[in-house]
Prior knowledge:
The complex is a heterodimer. Chain A is an alpha/beta fold. Chain A is 34% helix and 14% strand. Chain A contains 27 helices and 19 strands. In chain A, the strands form five sheets. A six-stranded mixed barrel of chain A has the order 14-18-15-17-16-19. A five-stranded parallel β-sheet of chain A has the order 3-2-1-5-6. In chain A, α7 runs antiparallel to α10, α7 (93-107) packs across α11 and α10 packs across α11 (145-157). Residues 621-650 of chain A have low confidence and may be disordered. Chain B has helices at 3-27, 32-58, 81-112, 116-150. Chain B starts with a helix and ends with a helix. By secondary structure, chain B is mostly helical. The chains are: A alpha/beta, B mainly alpha.
Amino acid sequence: MDGNTRLCTATAAAALKASFGTDGQPGSYTDVDHCDAIALWGHNCAETQAVLWMRMLDRRRGPNPPALLAVDPRSTPVAREADIHLAPRIGTNVALVNGVLRELFYHGWIDETFVGAHTIGVDELEAMVDRYTLEHVADVCDVPANDFAAAAELVGTCDRLISTVLQGFYQSNQATAAACQVNNVHLLRGMLGRPGAGVFQMNGQPTAQNARETGADGDLPGFRNWDNPAHIAELAGLWNVNPTTIPHWAPPTHAMQIFRYAEQGSIKLLWISATNPAVSLPDLARVRRILAQPGLFVVVQDLFLTETALLADVVLPAAAWGEKVGTFTNADRTIHLSERAVDPPGQARPDLDIFLDYARRMDFRARDGAPLITWDDPESAFEAWKRCSRGRPCDYSGVTYQRLRDGDGIQWPCTADRPGGTERLYVDAVFNTQPEMCETYGHDLVTGAAFTAEEYRAKQPGGRAFLHAVDYQPPPELPDAEHPLLLTTGRTVYQFHTRTKTGRIPQLDGAAPDVWVELSRSDAEALGIVDGDGVEVRSARGAIRGAARVTSVRRGVVFVPFHYGYWDRGGSAPTSPETARAANELTLSSWDPVSKQPMFKVCAIRVDRVADDAATARAGSGPADAVGFGPPYDGDARTVAMSFLEGVER
Amino acid sequence: MNLAHYLGLLDDAETGLAAAFRHVADRHRVEPDVVQECRLLAGWSDRHAAELAPFVRRYGEQVDDEPERLRSTIFGGSRQGAWALLRDLHDLYLMATECELSWVLVGQAAAAVRDTELGALVGSCDGDTSRQLKWLRTRMKQAAPQALVVS
């Protein structure tokens, strides 16, 4: 079992575990209100977390505005707002942050007391980053040395720093290693656990945090360590099953490996709930081939007939968020209750009801012969989850539906001792690295090799955080004569994931109706491309077409948004080479050795002009249907839900 | 002094391991993580062999006249699918073990002849070899349940 979180926030979880012992965001969004510097590392916050960005802009437009650093190869709204914008060469994040760390050591911008008392590994880290001088970083990352020095000074001399990290790091080369280096910045400077000082290993979607803590991302529930027999025994006790019932003899099988097993035929049934791998996974031609394989039975549970659902053997209509009850937990650990606004249309049912029905029909039993599943609705499932989370870092035991209804959101851990929840973790700088508590015994961040319990204990972490030292290594795919440019994929604020919902909301879809291909002025000039031209982008995997947008993106870099697929263009796949438009036709199957998050942001490509405009480039394709191909299961009822959503958007 | 002989054995073992990592990367092109890691780890063995060269010269070239024991007996037989990956990684593990043990023994000899330079090289290389072994073990543990039970 794995989650869409694998594509989105697996590296956040991996980096938090590696540095602090368990997953769990140290800071709170209130830190935005207190900080005097914000560093956004590969995080286009304006288009991925618009509300958080408004909070940052409120500070920037108010008294005592915080300084802002943006690291992004594109000139995003965040980069344009920033005091310092670094646009490093794609895939060089580890070199860049190593350089920042070296400046911290060199100038003595270190909280020696904090580092001495609360961290392990400072000598190895200092030795490792020593060679990342200003000149070396300027050379490897191709950033101006003066800008880089100013960025390091901003990070090194502020009093209250918050950092946010997202896909520019997570979906790129050496993902976990790079994200850990940002944690290192905060550990060296003692920038944790107090107002205005915190690191946010963000989620792509605001609600992805609950998938991580409940174990829907392949981890075990409650940040438990699959390699720790005591943790397995706890779960077995909670569920009243034999410990051998719980698969824990090998690391969780990540999404890319699940698809590989399906390709090889050793997985014969895939149940895909509420996500769309036929657009969101890398190398789509391969993904479609696997999903269509005769020996693979595919069940898809979704709101609409997505590209993936069109390839399914069975489709189970599911209810949307406004049609069911449940809690969401966001990136700063705040739990909210989301109530049902309207009934689901037609035969659509909440995902929980579908899974409970499945468990009942399968007649799953506990060790004593009683039904395994002892809950029957969202609130009783929440009560079971509270028992499961008790005593773990993400302790929900003090939260009730009634409290969430009566008041505002509550930040975990929330217990009898801390009924109001917990604004910040690690205020005493005691981290979750005790061998009995930790979620992992750690990995070699270069190879992904797992350490054993004995190796972990020998480090005697005792509540101290790990400073991981990692050398830069180039990405697995680099430009060559045939594919001289590097592709990075990403998002626009108007569309969400694969447009399953936003593509059906005319105002949102109208704002960003089709894919585009963003390239730099100098590359466009060299290729004879002007704004609006129809261009073809080709990699070793496939090709797409779209309209060129000439922007101030870094030279040598091409950006394509990943949202656009084919459900409103006639099916699950392009009907001809001219109609191919999903960015993931191009991307390569490759992933971070630790987090297993696919590398969507480093892919060698070529770009060629094919027509004066995108429409001619797409000659042969019919006009796009703005509202969408494939009616929902019950048009009328769904329209009600859509109207509600529009109301919220306004 | 037989140290020269062991340096020759170690040199052969590292060169052979580098070639074997590349061989496995080429055989399993549809397993991107295996390709990526095997290429990376092959580079480590290349570096070990290169850094060993001055010491092979220092202690005199001594041609290894022992019959090749390992490589001729592994990577054999017909191997398919998930089973092939597991068996190939298993064979790499045996070859890497040969390197690791040889580094330990060369390190003992370096200490006995007070060759601090060779001792330092052992110190930097045998850690890499352990990391190669750990990756292989991790990847095999991941692959084994599926390969041995449901493939």
